Amino acid sequence: MAGRKEIDYTYSLIDKIFRYSLGDTGDFSGAMYDGDFGLSLEEAQRRKHAFIADHLAIRPGSRVLDMGCGWGAFLKFIERRGAEGVGVTLSEGRRRACRKNGLQVHLRDCRTLRPEDFGRFEAAACVGAFEAFCSREEWEDGRQDRVYRDFFENTARLLKPRGRFYMQTMVIGPKAIDPADVDIRAPRGSDAHVCAVLQNQFPGHWLPSGEAQVVDAARPFFRLISRSSGRLDYIETQRQWSRAFKKFGLRKYLFYLSLVPRYFVRPEFRKRLALFDVAANRICFEREILDHFRLVFEKL
User: Which pTM value belongs to this model?
Assistant: First the structure.
């Protein structure tokens, strides 16, 4: 699994850029356009939050666990519904940002939570964090299914009877290439190169082979009640993120300028910036190398 070091590697650089572009409680996961691509990013994110809250039957007084809560966008949404939200994250920068906004967020690994930590919940959500739960090494050792089953078993312990669980995750798509062909030295823009960029952007991550693997891992503990693909939604989300990151803002562009000395004196920093110059996620979704699913479960 991607641990605190890998999560900070991926997200520490973009923490300020993201918040300067999308606000202190922006949502860094795929929005929900549901075919209406005329929606603004903010409208599509609110539609997603409402979709999750409705499918989890969140109402005033509900206790909800947000696993890998990002900058707290969903926690803020359910707070307005009168629910009590508890978030956990492995990113210290995200935890600080959430606490600054009055959210109950802890620096914890959601896979190791126990009921005695925060009690049991009527509902839980895991929006994007599942992608970090298995590493390439665990996949190569044949442990991926076990990692996922253990996660669902533990999540079931955290929920009350008939509690609901929402998961949103990327998975390997139908046009994925052989992992052995992934190579950062491949021609720029090729499938092999784009996949290598993606792996380097997200160290410690290895995706499920498809949504069926996720559903199978959950089956001993949950029944599936809803399944839908968000691949096209994620493509549009990433287009709108790109525009937001480039849009002028004084604080944001002053921060960009502050990175210039680091660029010239730190080769590793230049390497990281070069990786983000390729829209690897969006390209992989467009080519169906990756897919994206929204899954709603109910505890057995």
Answer: 0.89
